[in-house]
């Protein structure tokens, strides 16, 4: 934070404005204190667009409008129209108009299939020349409505599969006629990641630990982050918790960090058991689901505890499908407080 403030101060001292909107992590540390962008804005180090009247900034050449991030599609569809009502987008045809946002749009080929689209494209207003997007980690540019939609991508590796993506940002030039030219500036001073992805199906936790430790030691070098990714299905009775992550993390002597990722699956409920549950006599689907969960958790927990976890699983199914985070949180907290 100190480095960021010093850098923002250098820009302010050179009269270079920094315009910002909040992203999916900027509500931290909590809902009471709100985003760190508020005090940075109050100190004049950034111009946090949604905090200002009209959610905009303008000069003699351009108009910039920015919206908050609402994190889920349900909240976005509920709250963004209310934000527009209080801060009406007003692109000016005589200026270059920029719309700034941080969320994934429901656009095939733009938003990865594994990422939830937080808004349909119809929720973004017309009349802008440039739509500057955040949240999607891969850089892209496309024609959109009356202008260009650009995601510059993340500037750092967030998930291990981001390591292969080119990192950078767009430098955007606009001539007097409004023609837009984008140049993607590649970042060179990035941390180096070494991804060790292996399938350990059928191996015991101790064998997996030993093999991973050996690989980490072989890949150890200065100024790298090593990410062992362990995949596969464990033998019956084996548990993911038996992998010695501490030993794996301590296997390197030179690397900045070893960050093991466990994608191992424990032995699943046999197919014949699942079939006997779901192909039996006609029952309510939740009852059948409860029987399935009970069978699955009974392999790992005492019967009474397995029954409680199975009931919890059923209770959070509906709110999960509705993306009702508060209800899910309420159910989980009630379970934890009882234990």
Describe the protein in words:
The protein is α/β, with parallel strands linked by helices and 339 residues long. The protein has three domains: 2-186, Purple Acid Phosphatase, chain A, domain 2 (4-Layer Sandwich); 192-265, no CATH class; 271-337, no CATH class. It contains nine helices and 14 strands. It has a six-stranded mixed sheet, with no helix packed on it. Strands 11, 12, 13 and 14 form a four-stranded parallel sheet that branches. Strands 1-2 form a two-stranded parallel sheet. Helix 5 links the parallel strand 12 (224-233) and strand 13. Helix 6 runs antiparallel to helix 7 (285-298), helix 7 crosses helix 8 and helix 8 runs antiparallel to helix 9. The chain is globular.
Mean pLDDT over the full residue set: 89
Task: Determine the number of helices (DSSP H or I, runs of at least 4 residues).
Answer: 9
Helix content: 25-40%
How many strands, what sense, and barrel or not for the largest sheet?
6 strands, mixed
Record field, number of beta strands: 14
Q: Write the H/E string, N to C.
A: HEHEEEHEEEEEEEHEHEEHHHH
Computed CA radius of gyration, to the nearest angstrom: 25 Å
Low-pLDDT stretches: none
Principal-axis shape equals globular
Tell me what portion of residues adopts beta-strand conformation. Answer: 15-25%
Which CATH class of the largest domain applies here? Alpha Beta
CATH level-four homologous superfamily name of the largest domain: Metallo-dependent phosphatases
Query: What name does the CATH topology of the largest domain carry?
Result: Purple Acid Phosphatase, chain A, domain 2
Helix/strand-derived class? alpha/beta
Question: What is the count of distinct domains?
Answer: 3
What is the terminal separation in angstroms?
38 Å
